[in-house]
Structures are given as structure tokens and as C-alpha cells.
Amino acid sequence: MSKDPIIYDLVLLLSASSDEEARAALVGEVEAMIASGGGAVSLKQSWGQRPTTYRIDHQSEADYHLIQFSGPPALLEALSHTLRIADQVLRFRIIKVLPGTPAAPESAPPILAGATAVAASDDEAA
Questions:
Q1: Is 123 strand, coil or helix?
Q2: How far apart are alpha carbons 48 and 30 in whole angstroms?
Q3: Domain that holds residue 119
Q4: What's the burial of 110, exposed, middle or buried (CB within 10 Å: 0-12/13-18/19+)?
Q5: How far apart, in Å, do the first and last CA atoms of the chain sit?
Q6: What pLDDT is attached to residue 21?
Q7: Confidence band, pLDDT 50/70/90 cuts, at residue 106
Q8: Can you give the CATH number for the domain in which 97 is found?
Q9: Is 78 within the bounds of a domain?
């Protein structure tokens, strides 16, 4: 009986204040780490700059990315370590995709009106 590889979703929130080339280089580095760590990227989506629900490191917007990949458990530790110390990363989350979970969306989820209102009011208060 063959065992299907475990699929993971990596959601990256990158600092919108860092330059675009640095953000693209980090995403490329993550993909290279996955490949060199024995994994494979099955889906990569850039959702663009979107408002955050609350300010993170004094920033109300982030550059969102979704990377779906498979790989061994040791790869998760290496990715987590690298993303924790990267200056461009505001937040990240690696989520194990359970069998029966719906597929990732074809495009970015819609921006909720409440998120933009919260971000705008935070900017005005600052």
C-alpha cells in the first residue's frame, strides 16, 4: 500500500515596507529550501498586498503568499527556523492539509470591508 505524501500549506505575510526584490528573493529561497529538503512545491500563489486584521510591527498591510508543498517533517523545522529569523517575515503559518480538505482557492480570498476599516482607523490614530 503506497502512502500519499503529506501536503502542507505555508501562508507567508511579508513586510510591505521591504522592497519587492527582497520579498521575491525570500519566496525563492523558501522554494529552494523545500526542493533541497526533499520536498516538492505543488502550488504557489501571490495574493498581493492586503490589509491585515490588526497592525503587526506597526504595519497595517502585508504581502500575502500561499505555498502548498509536500516534504519530510525535518523540512518543517528548517523552514520554521529560517522564517522566524528573516527580517521580511511579519507572520507565517505551516498547516498540515488533512485528507478531505477542500483544494486551495484559485485566487486570493476577497478583502473584507472590516479589515480595511480597522487598518484605516489605525493609520488615522497614529
A1: helix
A2: 17
A3: 7-125
A4: exposed
A5: 59
A6: 92
A7: confident
A8: 3.30.70.60
A9: yes
